[in-house]
């Protein structure tokens, strides 16, 4: 059976998924000491996103890829859901949002 869902509802469901999986991250003080002015939010020793001044970089493997694969969101939709998630859960309102990798960040 095939279901048709409006875009706004799809984005709400994707936001709920993001809140469910990454709604209780901790800010790593040690990582922030190693990289002054950065705020690393982590789960199980893995960086989920980094907030720095007016921008956020989020983990593309853990956030972008599942949102694209499970919800068939395009780049702009992923960005919108991530922005809503950051605002709702972490009270962070970045002007710029990027996806990326943290494999070269040594904590």
Describe this structure in words.
- The radius of gyration is 14 Å and the shape is elongated.
- The chain starts with 6 loop residues before the first helix and ends in a 7-residue tail after the last strand.
- The chain has one domain (7-100).
- Helix 1 (7-22) packs across helix 4.
- The chain has helices spanning 7-22, 29-34, 60-71, 75-90, and strands spanning 26-27, 38-43, 46-52, 55-59, 96-100.
- It contains 4 helices and 5 strands.
- It is α+β, with helices and mostly antiparallel strands and 107 residues long.
- It has a 5-stranded mixed β-sheet.
In brief:
This protein has about 110 residues and is α+β, with helices and mostly antiparallel strands. Helices cover about 45% and strands about 25% of the residues. The protein has one domain.
Keywords:
107 residues; alpha+beta; five-stranded mixed sheet; 4 helices; 5 strands; 47% helix; elongated
Describe the secondary structure blueprint for this structure:
Layout: H1 7-22, E1 26-27, H2 29-34, E2 38-43, E3 46-52, E4 55-59, H3 60-71, H4 75-90, E5 96-100
Parallel strand pairs: 4-5
Antiparallel strand pairs: 1-2, 2-3, 3-4
Helix pairs in contact: 1-4
């Amino acid at each position: 059976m095939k279901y048709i869902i409006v875009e706004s509802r799809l984005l709400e469901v994707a936001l709920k998924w993001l809140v469910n999986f990454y709604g209780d991250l901790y800010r790593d003080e040690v990582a922030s000491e190693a990289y002054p002015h950065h705020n690393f939010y982590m789960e199980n020793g893995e960086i989920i996103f980094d907030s720095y001044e007016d921008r956020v970089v989020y983990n593309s493997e853990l956030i972008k890829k599942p949102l694209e694969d499970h919800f068939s969101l395009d780049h702009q939709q992923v960005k919108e859901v991530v922005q809503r998630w950051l605002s709702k859960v972490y009270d962070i309102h970045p002007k710029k949002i990027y996806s990326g990798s943290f494999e070269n960040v040594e904590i």
